[in-house]
Write a structure and sequence with these properties.
Oligomer: single chain
CATH architecture of the largest domain: Alpha-Beta Barrel
CATH topology of the largest domain: TIM Barrel
Radius of gyration: 24 Å
Shape: globular
Largest sheet: 6 strands, mixed
Strand content: 25-35%
Distance between the termini: 49 Å
Number of strands: 18
Helix content: 25-40%
Structural class: alpha/beta
Number of domains: 3
CATH class of the largest domain: Alpha Beta
Number of helices: 10
Amino acid sequence: MPGISADLILHNTNILTLDPKLPDAEMVAVKGNYIIGVGDKNDISTVSNSSTEMIDCQGLTVIPGFNDSHCHPISFALSLVYVDCSPEKVRGIEDIVEKIRQRAKATSEGEWIRAAGYNELELAEKRHPALRDLDRAAPANPIILLKDTGKTCVLNSLALKMTGITGETPDPKAGHIERDPKRGTPTGVLSGLIDEVRMKVPPVKQGELRQGIKLADQFYLANGITSVQDVTWSNSLRHWEYYQELKRDGRFSPRVAVMAGNDNVDEFKQYGLCTGSGNAMLKLSSAKIALDESTGCEHPPQEELNRHALSAHMAGFQIARFTLAMCMTFRQHWKPFDMYGTTTPLR
C-alpha cells in the first residue's frame, strides 16, 4: 500500500499466507490492527519509516492466527485453577485421590475443593470415582469433581450433605442420581444436575478467577489462537460486561465473539445490544438455543422452537441452535465446563 508506513514489520521469515494468489512471503507489514501488506524483503522500504518497529524472525514460520469458533473461555479459565484430573495428569482413581489430598493440605477445613477433567474411560479402573474415593482424599472438605464433558460430576459425602442430596431425593427430569443398588444411597455420581449443584456451591474467589483468566490468555496465545467465540448457552448481560472489563484492563488478548443465551435476549435488547454490537475486539454474535439433556428439553415441540426463534429475531439476533451431538462433535479438551463454571464467578 504505497504511501502508508507500517507500525510493525515482521521480516526474515517464511510466511504462509493461505492465499493461493500469494502462498508465501518474506515479510508482513502491520498498521494498527490491520495487515497492510505482505511481500518479499525488497518491499520493506516501501512500507517503513524511521519509527517502524522491525522484528527479525530469524527464518521462523509465520501463519495467520487460529479462530476457535466453539469454546468457553471463562469456563476454561476456571478449569485452570481447579485440581487438574485430565487424562494427561492422572492414570487412575488413586492419582485423583492423591492430587485432591495435596490440594486439601493448602485448603482450610470446610472450604470447597474443585477438581475437573477426568474421563472414566481413560482411568485404569474404567469407572467413575465415587464419594468413598473422594472421602478418603479430603473428608473435612466438600469436593466437586467434574467429568471432562461437563455433564457429570462427583460429590463426596460432605458435598452431598451441603447440597441437600440424599437417598430420598428423586431424580429430576433432566438428571440422574446414581445410587448403590443394594442400599439405594447416592454414590456421589450425578448426571445432568450441574445447574442444580452449581447454585449451591459458592463462587470461586475473584483472585482465583483473575489467575485463571491470565493462564487462559497465555494458553490461547501460545497455541496461536487469536480469536474465540464463547458459545455458552447461559451468557447474559453480566457476561458481556465482564468481557468488556477484561478488554478494558487488557487482561484477555484474543478477539471475542459472544453468543447470547436465548433466555437473555430481551435483557440485551433493553440496552440496545444485538447481533453485531461491539467492536473489532469484542462483539455479540448469535443467540444460542441449546437443545440437550442438560436443559431438560432435548426435543421441544415446534411451537416452543418457534417462540424462541421469534424472540431472538425480535431482539435483533441471528440464531444458533446447538444439540448435544453437535457439542460433542466440536468437543475440545479445554471446553469442559459449560454448565458449571461460566456463571458461578459472575454472581
